[in-house]
């Protein structure tokens, strides 16, 4: 029962930071341009990927079915396309414009473009 208060507090914190975020990140320019991948960015990208992308694109980008795009085949020389598709969505791929914190697409790109850190 002691945990309950803590849970509520965490929920409130999450909700308020979410709201602050929605206000600050409506401008696509808030999303930083892709830079060189570092191991730290790849790790951050993996955590983010597991949380927000893996349910459709599969663990470690290994898709369980055929319905979602195979991210291991995404062209590594097309960061703009990646940023655009993740920001605005594409067909059944949802938009992540308001769901990710600033910088998150950069971490995700570091993860995807290095094939999970294998091609750095
Ligand atoms: C609800 C399921 C779903 C989730 C969650 C999801 N995707 Fe997708 N994604 C799709 C589908 C379906 C496609 C294929 C879209 C098409 O081309 O018709 C796709 C395609 C893509 C593409 C290729 C777009 C292109 O330019 O051809 C990229 C890149 C991508 N997803 C990245 C991500 C990333 C990164 C995340 C996590 C932030 C993510 N997706 C989360 C369903 C999803």
Automatic annotation (TrEMBL):
N-terminal signal peptide: 1-22
Record keyword Metal-binding present: yes
InterPro entries in the record: Cyt_c-like_dom, Cyt_c-like_dom_sf
Pfam (any one): Cytochrome_CBB3
PROSITE patterns given in the database record: CYTC (PS51007)
Domain Cytochrome c: start-end pairs: 40-116
GO molecular function: electron transfer activity; heme binding; metal ion binding
Keywords, in A-Z order: Heme, Iron, Metal-binding, Signal
Protein name: Cytochrome c6
């Amino acid at each position: 029962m002691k945990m309950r208060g803590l849970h509520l507090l965490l929920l409130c914190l999450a909700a308020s930071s979410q709201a602050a975020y929605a206000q600050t990140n409506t401008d696509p320019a808030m999303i930083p341009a892709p830079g060189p991948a570092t191991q730290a960015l790849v790790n951050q990208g993996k955590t983010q990927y597991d949380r927000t992308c893996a349910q459709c694109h599969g663990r470690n980008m290994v898709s369980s079915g055929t319905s979602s795009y195979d991210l291991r085949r995404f062209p590594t020389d097309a960061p703009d396309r990646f940023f655009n598709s993740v920001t605005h969505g594409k067909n059944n791929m949802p938009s992540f414009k308001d769901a990710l914190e600033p910088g998150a697409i950069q971490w995700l790109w570091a993860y995807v473009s290095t094939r999970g850190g294998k091609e750095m």
